[in-house]
Each structure stands twice: as structure tokens, then as C-alpha cells.
Specification:
It is a single chain. The chain has 6 helices and 14 strands. By secondary structure, the protein is α+β, with helices and mostly antiparallel strands. The protein starts with 11 loop residues before the first strand and ends with a helix. It is 29% helix and 32% strand. The strands form 3 sheets. Strands 8, 9, 10, 11, 12, 13 and 14 form a 7-stranded antiparallel β-sheet that branches. Strands 1-2-3-7-6 form a 5-stranded antiparallel β-sheet.
């Protein structure tokens, strides 16, 4: 998304929302918001928590770079531009209460839920929907659930699936060029004031699973979930490779 006004000139107002990893602020433009990335880590629906200085900076840098890459392929998103190391400007949207998960390789909750072996490369991407509700543990839902309970429309789901599969192809190509396997990832979508559906939230090691294509090392939040250590080092490595690509 682009703007006629320099987003770095936006006046930051009151905080309108605080989540596990980000704060959202109103601005002097009612159609725009400022997103500030926090240094917080959470896992298992907030049961495990930690603070690591520099984490917010890395997620902001990485997510901004990925949104810019997707914009180059005309993927519509809420992202406008990065303001500084911890903040970015975005279109103000109403988030749909659905998390969209794409799995290219089996791991995580999929293995636990179905008893399948980790590391199976799927014949095609597996797309899943989860209802965004921490109190319920973000349960897996079907498309019919989403439509019948008013969380999305059939038309929106069609667009979401089409956009998600395109994002998967684009991100797989991007990270493959960096020596990284895109194992799985989560997306969220929102609608702006005119009702346009936009890719929203963030795309970072918090929301994606990245494995080094040579060593298999985890380069994502699994290092925090599983107490593998050097969590920020993994995030730094993702940013290093992305930034080297852009030089």
C-alpha cells in the first residue's frame, strides 16, 4: 500500500490495542495506524513468556522487508512503510477472527494432533483455518464454521485462499534463495475502511517456521518454544540473509 503523505510524518496518538507482540496506535490520519513491535516472546497461548531486548526491532525489520517483497508482486497488504527500527505505518483494518496456516512440511501441532511423523514434505500445501480466541486455544475450524458463524464470507474465503497460496509460492522462492526452507506459516487478513481485503499482521520468525536448508537448524520461535537457545541469534540470521539480498 502506498500513501501520498510521508508516513514518517504521522503523528502518533493513543494506543488503541496491545497484543502479545505488538502495540497499535491511532494517528492523525484515521485510516492509518502505527504498529510498534515489542520485545516480548510468548508461546502456548501466552503460557510461556519472556522479554528479550532487540526482538521487536528484528521482527519489525524482517516483517517490513517481507511485506515490501510481496508488494513488488502486487500482493495487497496493510503495510505502508517502516518508520524506524521498532515501528511501521500501516493501513488501519478490522482483522478477521481467523488465522490462516499453510503447512509445506509436517511439524508442530499437526504432528501432535494427527500422530504423523515430523519432516514429511507434503505433496501440496496444506491450508488450515483457526478461530482467533485465546480462551478457546485458537481451535481448528472448517470453512463452513467460518461462514455459518459470520467470521468470514464465502467470497472472502475464496480470496483468502487464493492470496495465501500465492504468498506461499512467493515466500518459498524468496527464502529458498536465502538457503532457508519455509516449513509453515500463519497469516491474518483484515479489511480497510472501503472493505478491501488486505494481508495484515506480521510475517516474521514469530509467525513462520524456518529451517536452514543445509543444517536443518531452526531459525524461528521454535527455539523459544523448545528451549533450544540462541533465539535472537536465529532471528538475527534471518535478518542478515534478507538484508544481504537487498544490497
Amino acid at each position: 500500500m502506498t500513501s501520498s503523505k510521508n508516513s514518517k510524518d504521522l503523528v502518533q496518538g493513543d494506543m488503541i490495542y496491545e497484543g502479545k507482540a505488538k502495540r497499535l496506535y491511532a494517528t492523525d490520519d484515521p485510516n492509518k495506524t502505527i504498529i510498534e513491535y515489542k520485545d516480548s516472546f510468548t508461546a502456548f497461548n501466552g503460557e510461556k513468556r519472556a522479554e528479550m531486548s532487540g526482538k521487536g526491532r528484528l521482527n519489525n525489520l524482517i516483517s517490513s522487508a517481507v511485506f515490501e517483497y510481496l508488494a513488488g508482486s502486487d500482493v495487497p497488504s496493510h503495510f505502508i512503510e517502516r518508520i524506524d527500527e521498532n515501528r511501521q505505518a500501516a493501513v488501519r483494518v478490522k482483522i478477521l477472527p481467523l488465522e490462516v496456516v499453510v503447512r509445506n512440511i509436517t511439524t508442530g501441532s499437526l504432528c501432535k494432533r494427527l500422530g504423523v511423523q515430523e519432516g514429511i514434505k507434503l505433496k501440496r500445501p496444506l491450508l488450515e483455518f483457526y478461530y482467533k480466541d485465546d480462551a478457546l486455544g485458537d481451535p481448528l475450524v472448517t470453512e463452513d464454521h467460518a461462514i455459518l458463524f459470520g467470521w468470514s464470507t464465502e467470497e472472502d474465503l475464496f480470496q483468502i485462499k487464493r492470496m495465501t497460496m500465492r504468498v506461499n509460492d512467493l515466500l518459498k522462492n524468496l527464502f529458498s534463495s536465502l538457503g532457508i526452507v519455509l516449513v509453515d506459516f500463519k497469516l491474518e487478513f483484515g479489511k480497510d475502511g472501503s472493505g478491501q481485503l488486505l494481508l495484515s499482521d506480521e510475517i516474521s520468525p514469530d509467525t513462520c517456521r524456518f529451517w536452514d536448508s543445509s543444517t536443518g537448524d531452526r531459525l524461528d520461535k521454535d527455539r523459544f518454544r523448545k528451549d533450544l537457545g540462541d533465539v535472537l541469534g536465529a532471528y538475527e540470521e534471518i535478518w542478515r540473509r534478507l538484508s544481504e539480498r537487498n544490497k
